[in-house]
Every structure is written in structure tokens, then in C-alpha cells.
Amino acid sequence: MAVSQSRPRGRSQGERRGEGRALFDDLLAVAGSLAESRREHAADQLETLAHSMRQFSGSLPSLPAVGGYAETAADSLEELAGYVLDSEIAEMLSDARDLARRHPLATFGGSIVAGVIITQLVQSRTDTMRSALRARRGSGRKPRARKSDKAQ
Fold first, then answer.
1. Tens of pLDDT, residues 99-124
2. What is this structure's pTM?
3. Rounded Cα gap, residues 7 and 4, in angstroms
4. Sign, Cα dihedral of 96, 98, 101, 103
5. Angle (nearest 5°) at CA 59 between 55 and 60
6. Which value, in Å, is the radius of gyration of the alpha carbons in the chain?
7. Are 77 and 46 in contact (CB under 8 A)?
8. Which of 15, 81, 130, 147 is a Cys-bridge partner for 11, taking CB atoms 3.0 to 4.6 Å apart?
9. Is the pLDDT of residue 10 over 80?
10. How far is CA 120 from CA 38, 43, 146, in A?
């Protein structure tokens, strides 16, 4: 008969919390290493966005105020790209927490704007993928019969 290697049932609440914290710390470490590997890519994307903003500002000679805002946004994006490259993930998270504590309304507004932008990007990507899938399907498939055609 095999001997059971199970843990004792009488673990204290402190032991369970310690195990939970250890698991959470492990998850954070994995997430941190993934985020660390994507940091350079994120900085490149921010610089690309800054370049696009500069092009946008140059395309609006009749609206100098809007062009000025776009230029300021491009400068900020470039600064953010440098910050992403020069900072550790833990430091960025700490800075984000501090910002949220000092400026909760601005953080809330920024979160809404970021959510709208992300939604638009995902929707655009989804539409592009659907179009590509339809184009592939359309090249070698018969069209499906409509319900009205089946009834006859």
C-alpha cells in the first residue's frame, strides 16, 4: 500500500497566506520577465507613434494650434520612450501608483482614453483579419446557399 505524501490538514492561516504570497510573487516574476523582454519593442512603438504625430502636425499648416498640440504630444511620446528604455518595470509600476495617488481624476481620464484607443486598435486589427479571411475563403469556395434558396 502506498504511503500518502499529502500535506497536513492543520496548516495555519499564516502558512496558507505565505504560500499564496509565494505563488503571487512567482507570477509577478514571470510577468516581469515577459514585460522586460517587451520593453524595447514598446519604446520602438512609442517612437513610431511620435514620428506619426510629427507627420500629422506637419500636415496641418492651416491649423497651427492643432499642429502645436500634436508636436507637444510627439515630444512627450519620445520622452516616454526614453523613460521606458531607461527604467526597470518595478520602477515604472511604482511611478504609475504614485501618479494615480496624486492625480486620481487624470488617471481615470487617461484610462478611459487608453481604453478607447486600445478598443479602436483591436477593432481595426479584427476587421483586417476578417477581411483577409474572407478573401482567402472567397478564392476557392462556393458561396453558401441562402435560406430562401433552400426552401424552394
1. 899 999 998 998 898 888 888 878 88
2. 0.49
3. 9
4. negative
5. 125
6. 26
7. yes
8. 15
9. no
10. 22, 21, 32
